[in-house]
Structures are given as C-alpha cells and as structure tokens.
Amino acid sequence: MFFEEVDNALKEICLEIGKRYEIHFVEIGTDKDHVHFLVQSIPTYSPTKVVRVIKSITAREIFQRVPVVKKILWGGEFWTDGYYINTVSRHGNEDVVRQYVEGQGKKEEYKKLHSEQLRLF
C-alpha cells in the first residue's frame, strides 16, 4: 500500500536524522494528511531549527525513496510552510502529548509509526 511505503520510509529517515542531529523521536503519529512528532533534542537547537531539519531532510529523502509522491502532491511539496510547535518540560504534560501523538491515524488506513527503538523510556 502506498501510504504504508511512505510511513515506513518516514520512520527510517527519522531514525537516521536522530543519529546524525541528536534529535530523538519519542513518538511519531501519522494521519491521512499530517504527521505529529514528539521529539527531544539538545538545548543548543532552537525549536525552529529542529523543525527545519526534520522537514527538509524528510521531504528530500521521501522524494528519493518513493518518487511517485512528488507527482501525487499538490505543487510537488511534501510539507506545508506552517507548523505548530510546543515545548514540554520533564515535569509537565509529556504523557498527555505522547498519548495524543500515539493516537493519530486510523488503524484500517494508516500504520502508526511507533517502535520500541523510538521509545525514550
């Protein structure tokens, strides 16, 4: 299935990003037309830098690994220009955010991108 191929590629790419850029993907949740990430990174990276790294590398790699995606997408862009970002403190509401991201997607249509390798705890 096309979406499963993209989901699997996205997961692999995120694991590679994590190794190279010290961005730990705690959870990845996908839905029909969007993705939610719960990430942890080093303090010297601003939230904007984290988003920029994730969006640029995943888009480039998805287009290389699953070329048909570029033909299907409106305007040939993988990500929209906008994003929402929020920070979570260690003593804040990380569990609430984690549960929300875990719950993304419809079981019958989209495979959740979660594995034990992505778990922080």
Characterization of the model:
This protein has one domain (2-108): 2-Layer Sandwich (Alpha-Beta Plaits), CATH 3.30.70. Residues 106-121 have low confidence and may be disordered. The chain has 121 residues and is an alpha+beta fold. It contains 4 helices and 2 strands; from the N terminus they run H-E-E-H-H-H. It has a two-stranded antiparallel ribbon. The longest helix is centred in the N-terminal third of the chain and has 20 residues, at 2-21.
Spell out the key features of this protein.
121 residues, alpha+beta, Alpha-Beta Plaits, two-stranded antiparallel sheet, 2 strands, 12% strand, disordered C terminus
The H/E string reads HEEHHH
CATH architecture type: 2-Layer Sandwich
Q: Might you state the CATH topology name? A: Alpha-Beta Plaits
The outline comes out as globular
* Neighbour order of strands in the largest sheet: 1-2
Largest sheet: 2 strands, antiparallel
Overall pLDDT: 79
Number of strands: 2
Q: Please give the count of helices.
A: 4
Detail the poorly predicted runs.
106-121
Helix content: 40-55%
User: Gyration radius, to the nearest Å?
Assistant: 14 Å
Q: How many domains?
A: 1
CATH class: Alpha Beta
Q: How would you classify the helix and strand content by structural class?
A: alpha+beta
Per DSSP, what share of the residues sits in E-state strands of 2 or more residues? 5-15%
**CATH evolutionary superfamily:** Transposase IS200-like
N-C termini distance? 31 Å
